[in-house]
Structure formats: structure tokens, C-alpha cells
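Hi R.,

As promised on Friday, here is the backbone we talked about, encoded as C-alpha cells. Could you run it through your design pipeline when you get a chance and send me back a sequence?
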């Protein structure tokens, strides 16, 4: 395969892209072969098959580079990156050392299809490591691969012998924090960046202003960051000195920073401070001064984001003038889409969001469409994110720049830890990290969506392999981080067709009398569907606007479905259980559930015919405000439900009614369920369990 790919690299890009469908089919075969090679070589460290993201090309050979001292040589402008890693691993640099590490700057990496400036070649033999790259960025990513291959080094590094040719499919691979609504310390953001660059994330989108607060210090208008002008986390702001130090940190980690001042909407903090709207003559003059000051502060960053979303434009010249100002500062202007409408040439980059965000010819795009972690559940949505092609493209191009995973917190969360935990931050960023690096994907949220396909399919096998590697990193490089995801590719359910409840959510149907493959009710047959995963969407809430696939192809209101499985436990044991029927978005002011109920739909769950009741909720449904800390509504924010498994087969049965798809209590009704057995502390899935609707092992 590598020979064929190598030959194809000499053809024009357009011809090479015709190859990608064949290449995708061969990728799974290559991964399987690589796994067999690794398994057959006992001296390799465990991390060999856990690389994340996967490299574009890799060939493993026998032997290991195992040294406690090395002779580091090569381009002096690049060796510092390698030296930092060697120092971290406790490896000494000595000219007399038998092991050699060489770093070379080359004109190009021949087999890299796109993004030569980030490409690298890595060759490891028992006595030498050789890194070739076009730029400092490529060397940095090569070191991240070495760091993963070495695992947690003891007494020097152990690197399996290999040849890797690697490059990113997309230029922008990033994440966004909404620090305008929810202040996050720079110490925390730097910690996240340091962790995520190990997975070749290279962009931080910094949303600095919102209705709640203006977080960026202005020397011209210091009153903007006064606590009295903030409605959330008052006093939380970033000084210009802190910003400069932070940018230096990001540059050392090869991270592009995209600062954003949202305008003219999402600007209540501005209006509170100055007593005028941004689009008024006075307001426009002030925002121009602020934008110019911010552009100067972020002088080395090539982009500046001006927002323009969710606002009524009263001044048709406002946005063109802001774009012109950004360009006059030597930067490219980014705008949300949907937002202000542009023709080619009127904006430099459009960042897609919501179902209406569509790429336009002649306007480069960043894809954040359906990539909002604040709306995701813990299990189902990661399937869609991992499988989704970025802008429905195999590789990046001049018009397709990459993807950014956004974390919005319209609803207040209590602290930084919960921002990461309740948004399942690390699992979703790792999914974006791999997809934006390797490219490809099986669909654009329009095939299986959030539902895993048949286990024999290449798509399922690819996701299962990603899950395996991700969980390895959870337990190793990301140990101790808020990381609620557990294995779900072994969890199997039977879900019935939906029965008509005519608005009576308590109404009973045949599955409550006994489990079967098929039911007959009022002269009509109702079948069961087999589905895999710890979190199953029957109907995705985005289906209000977009044909976002879930389990039911044509769901209707006032319906009741049932789900069941049998779980084999090799022993009697006390375990935990993640249970959830309504994942409460971090961006919608939905009401917490009533006491004693899981949700507003009447969802119920039984284990071995004993009903499992919900916990005591921390928030009351009588008080509704986005400024009240979101509590334990979501399963990630509370301890697992303590339950007992008998030795042998255990029955799990759920009733899943739904009324209207939007209600006064819940705007985005999520017809879904989450159920999986975990360790009592919730850190991982219970080992040795078999989930089988028909009790087959």
C-alpha cells in the first residue's frame, strides 16, 4: 500500500483525491496489519498502537531505541524543541553517546499531500532517531509523536523502531472557550493547551466579550473591565501584560490564537459601560478604538474575529468598516456564518455555525457547524463528531481551513472543572484532533448520525479503535483530568418501535408485560431494533431544523418506546451506573427535573425488575435562571447511581415516552437515554460485563 501511495503522491492533487476512496478502504486493512506487527513484538512499549491522532503513514520494524543519553545534532534553530523533550524524559545530551538524535530542515516532505509546513518524517532505529521537517512546526509535531511513543519514560526513552511520514489534513485544528460568559484563568487555559498540543491541536479561539462581561483590558477605556459592568464572574479579566505572556506561551507551543470581540451583537457589557449601542455614532467610534487597540495587542496573530452573529443590523456600514479596520492592521477578518451576509472579497474567513451555516465559493471556511460541545450528550454525539467530514471534504484546501470545537456556557456552570466535565471537553477535543489531522470521515452528520453502524462495518471498527486509543490516553497522559467518557462499543440494546400514547405519557404497552422480538398492539406489529452504545438518541433535538439522523427515521410526538438488554456479570458485585434521559444543554435555560422524576417525559428504568429512582436534584424547578449554577442535572455532574449486579444475567429495562418535541419546561426535548455500568467512582466501565438483548455471549 505504501508503495502505491508513494507513487500516487507524484500525480496532481486533483488526481490524488480520486484515490482517497480506495485509500479509505485500505486504511482499515493497514491498521489491522500494523496491530498484528505490534502484537508480535514483545519489546515494544504499550503505547505503540495508541498513537492519537493516527499518523498518515507508519511502518513498524523490530527493535527499540532505548537510551539514557544521546548525541543531539542538526539545525540549531530546531534542536531546542527536541532538547526540551529529552530533558523532560531525563535523557542527557552527550557528544560521546552512542545513541543519536538528528533534526534536519528540508525543502519538503515528498509524500505529504497538503500542509507541508506542518509535515514531518520520523525514522527510528535501535541507535538513531532522525527527524526531518519543513519548519519548526513539523519538528514540534514529530516530538509529540515521540512523546506518545515513549509513554511515561523511566530510565531513558524507549521508542519502537519505525518510519513515519505524517502531515495534517487541515490547517486549523482547534477549540474555543467562551470566556466572555464564563471567565477561565489563563493558568487553566495554558494547562489545557499544553495537554492538547500533544494531540496536535494548533488553534485556540478566544471569545473575549459577551453580554455578561468584557474580559480584555483596555488602556483607553479601563471602565470596560470594572466589576460593576459585569453580570457574571465580576472582576474576571485579562490584562494586556497577561495577554502578551500568554501569546508567547502559545507561540512556543505552535498554537495560533484567534481573538474574538463579538460585534455589534452580544454586546450588553459594552452598552452598560457606555450607555450606547455599538451601531450608534458614539458607539461605533468607541468600538473602532477598542478594535484597533486589540489588533495591536495581538499584532503577531494573523486573524481577528469580529463576531456579527445573532443581531439586527441598523447601520449597513458597520461591518464593512470593521473589516476594513482589521485589514488595515495587516490581519484577516473572520465572521460567523450565519451572521452578516458577505460576497466574496468582503470577508476573509467565515466560521460556520448552526444548521444554516453553509460554505460559500470564494470565502474560506472554518467548520464549527454541529460542533458545539455545550449541546452534546456524553456518548452519542461523539460518534457523529468523529465520523463527520470537515466541511464534507477529505482534505483541507484554500477554501476549507479546518474545524474548531466550541464550548459555550450560556447557562452558568460553577467552576472551570465543571466546564470541562459537563461538556465532556477532552473526549470531544480528541475526536476533533484526530479527524482534523487524518482527514476523511464517513459522512457529514447525514448518514448514521449519532448511531453506530453494524459492528462488521469499517466505520464501526474505526470508531472502536479510536475509542480504545482515547481511553488509553485517559488513563495515561490525561489521568486525573475531568474525563467522564467510558467504553460504549460493547453496550448493546434492543429498542422497540414507538407505540402511540395519545399524549398520556404514563400509558402502558405490551413490552411492560414481557420482553419479545415483536409485539402486536391494536392490530399492528411493532418490531425491535438492535443498537450499540451507552447513549442512544431516538430523535436528535437538532431534528427541529436539520435531518440529523438518530435511531428512529420518522419520529412522531406522543409516542412511547422501550429499551432493554441483559447484562452478564461474572460475579455478584456493587457497581455504579450512569443513567440519564435528558441531557441538559449548557446553553439553554431548561428547567431541572421535578423531584422524584428523571425528566418531564416520564422516563423510567428498572434493574432486575426493581425501579431505579433519580437522585435528589440540587436545583428546584421553581426557580429558573441561567445565572444559577447548573447542578447535578446531568449524569457527568453527579456520582454514579449505586446498584448491585447479580452473578449471571441481569435485566435492564427502560420506558421512554415523549410528548411534544418542545415544551414550556424543555425547549429542546431530547428523546434519548444513557445507561452503562461503571466503577463506583465512575472512572471507567465495569470490566468483564456482556451486554446482550438475547443473552448471547
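Update: got your reply. Pasting your designed sequence below so it's all in one thread:
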Amino acid at each position: 500500500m505504501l508503495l502505491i501511495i508513494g507513487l500516487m503522491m507524484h500525480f496532481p492533487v486533483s488526481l490524488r483525491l480520486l484515490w482517497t476512496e480506495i485509500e479509505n478502504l485500505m486504511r482499515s486493512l493497514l491498521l489491522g496489519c500494523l496491530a498484528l506487527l505490534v502484537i508480535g513484538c514483545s519489546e515494544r512499549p504499550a503505547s505503540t498502537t495508541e498513537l492519537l491522532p493516527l499518523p498518515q503513514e507508519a511502518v513498524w520494524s523490530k527493535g527499540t531505541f532505548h537510551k539514557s543519553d544521546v548525541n543531539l545534532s542538526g539545525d540549531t534553530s530546531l534542536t531546542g524543541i527536541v532538547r526540551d523533550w529529552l530533558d523532560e524524559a531525563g535523557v542527557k545530551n552527550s557528544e560521546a553517546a552512542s545513541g543519536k538524535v538528528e533534526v534536519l530542515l528540508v525543502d519538503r516532505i515528498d509524500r505529504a499531500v497538503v500542509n507541508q509546513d506542518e509535515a514531518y518524517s520520523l525514522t527510528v532505529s535501535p541507535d538513531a532517531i532522525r527527524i526531518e521537517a519543513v519548519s519548526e512546526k513539523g519538528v514540534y509535531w514529530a516530538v509529540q509523536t515521540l512523546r506518545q511513543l515513549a509513554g511515561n519514560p523511566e530510565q531513558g526513552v524507549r521508542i519502537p523502531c519505525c518510519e513515519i511520514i505524517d502531515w495534517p489534513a487541515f490547517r486549523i485544528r482547534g477549540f474555543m472557550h467562551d470566556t466572555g460568559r464564563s471567565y477561565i484563568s489563563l493558568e487553566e487555559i495554558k494547562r489545557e493547551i499544553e495537554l492538547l498540543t500533544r494531540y496536535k491541536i494548533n488553534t485556540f479561539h478566544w471569545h473575549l466579550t459577551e453580554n455578561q462581561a468584557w474580559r480584555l483590558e483596555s488602556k483607553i477605556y479601563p471602565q470596560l473591565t470594572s466589576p460593576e459592568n459585569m453580570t457574571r464572574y465580576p472582576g474576571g479579566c485579562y490584562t494586556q501584560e497577561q495577554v502578551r505572556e500568554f501569546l508567547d506561551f502559545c507561540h512556543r507551543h505552535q498554537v495560533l490564537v484567534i481573538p474574538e470581540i463579538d460585534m455589534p451583537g452580544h454586546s450588553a457589557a459594552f452598552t452598560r459601560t457606555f450607555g450606547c449601542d455599538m451601531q450608534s455614532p458614539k458607539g461605533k467610534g468607541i468600538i473602532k478604538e477598542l478594535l484597533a487597540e486589540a489588533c495591536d495587542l495581538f499584532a503577531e496573530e494573523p486573524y481577528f474575529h469580529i463576531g456579527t452573529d445573532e443581531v439586527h443590523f441598523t447601520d449597513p456600514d458597520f461591518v464593512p468598516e470593521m473589516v476594513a479596520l482589521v485589514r488595515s492592521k495587516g490581519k484577516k477578518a473572520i465572521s460567523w456564518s450565519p451572521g452578516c451576509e458577505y460576497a466574496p472579497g468582503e470577508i476573509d474567513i467565515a466560521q460556520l455555525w448552526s444548521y444554516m451555516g453553509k460554505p460559500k465559493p470564494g470565502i474560506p471556511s472554518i467548520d464549527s457547524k454541529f460542533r458545539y460541545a455545550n449541546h452534546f450528550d456524553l456518548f452519542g454525539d461523539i460518534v457523529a463528531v468523529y465520523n463527520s467530514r470537515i466541511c464534507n471534504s477529505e482534505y483541507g484546501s484554500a477554501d476549507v481551513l479546518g474545524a474548531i470545537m466550541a464550548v459555550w456556557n450560556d447557562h452558568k456552570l460553577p467552576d472551570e472543572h465543571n466546564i470541562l466535565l459537563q461538556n465532556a471537553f477532552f473526549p470531544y477535543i480528541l475526536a476533533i484532533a484526530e479527524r482534523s489531522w487524518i482527514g476523511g470521515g464517513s459522512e457529514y452528520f447525514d448518514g448514521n448520525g449519532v448511531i453506530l453502524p453494524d459492528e462488521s462495518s469499517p466505520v464501526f471498527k474505526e470508531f472502536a479503535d479510536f475509542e480504545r486509543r482515547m481511553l488509553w490516553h485517559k488513563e495515561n497522559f490525561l489521568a486525573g483530568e475531568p474525563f467522564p467518557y467510558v467504553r460504549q462499543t460493547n453496550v448493546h440494546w434492543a429498542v422497540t418501535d414507538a407505540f402511540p400514547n395519545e399524549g398520556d405519557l404514563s400509558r402502558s404497552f405490551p413490552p411492560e408485560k414481557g420482553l419479545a422480538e415483536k409485539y402486536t398492539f391494536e392490530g399492528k406489529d411493532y418490531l425491535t431494533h438492535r443498537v450499540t452504545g451507552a447513549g442512544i438518541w431516538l430523535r436528535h433535538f437538532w431534528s427541529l431544523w436539520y435531518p440529523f439522523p438518530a435511531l428512529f427515521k420518522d419520529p412522531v410526538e406522543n409516542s412511547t418506546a422501550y429499551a432493554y438488554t441483559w447484562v452478564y456479570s461474572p460475579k455478584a458485585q456493587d457497581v455504579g451506573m450512569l443513567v440519564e434521559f435528558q441531557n441538559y444543554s449548557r446553553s439553554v435555560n431548561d428547567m431541572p427535573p421535578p423531584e422524584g422524576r428523571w425528566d418531564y417525559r416520564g422516563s423510567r428504568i428498572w434493574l432486575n425488575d426493581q425501579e431505579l429512582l433519580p437522585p435528589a436534584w440540587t436545583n428546584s424547578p421553581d426557580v429558573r435562571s441561567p445565572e444559577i449554577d447548573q447542578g447535578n442535572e446531568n449524569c457527568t455532574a453527579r456520582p454514579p447511581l449505586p446498584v448491585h449486579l447479580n452473578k449471571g444475567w441481569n435485566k435492564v429495562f427502560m420506558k421512554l415516552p415523549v410528548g411534544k418535541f418542545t415544551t414550556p419546561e424543555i425547549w429542546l426535548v431530547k428523546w434519548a437515554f444513557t445507561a452503562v455500568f461503571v466503577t463506583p467512582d465512575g472512572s471507567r466501565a465495569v470490566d468483564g460485563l456482556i451486554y446482550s438483548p438475547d443473552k448471547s455471549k
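One thing I noticed while checking it: The longest helix spans residues 20-39.

Thanks again,
M.
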